[in-house]
Amino acid sequence: xxxxxxxxxxxxxxxxxxxxxxxxxxxxxxxxxxxxxxxxxxxxxxxxxxxxxxxxxxxxxxxxxxxxxxxxxxxxxxxxxxxxxxxxxxxxxxxxxxxxxxxxxxxxxxxxxxxxxxxxxxxxxxxxxxxxxxxxxxxxxxxxxxxxxxxxxxxxxxxxxxxxxxxxx
Length: 169
Prior knowledge:
The protein is of the alpha+beta class.
């Protein structure tokens, strides 16, 4: 049964509920503005979840911006000074970036692109173009070590293949 006293008690309870909740506006990527009524202590991650349900886009791709600042998911509306009738903008995630930088020749004053397979020097770890890919051409700092290593390897192979002279024949 409806009594006037119950009506006044429900009316007095509703302003308290309204003071705890507030209406904010969210401008989505399509340009539409969505009004949302949420409690003042709502976290940004909860708001993003509500928006993902409303806009049917994953909450991980939504970035919320208010007054030019990106809102952290762990913060609340009140900690970001978002008041009643504030507008929050939705921004999409940034994907990609710059294309990968082309590898240039490491030889001084040479800006030509390095060769992909044969342009890598295994001794000085440099990347070189076709003109400077040889050790002598780019003046490799480990050129002498390379020459000594090759000389020792050749000497060891010659000693292993040395034939013995048989005397008396």
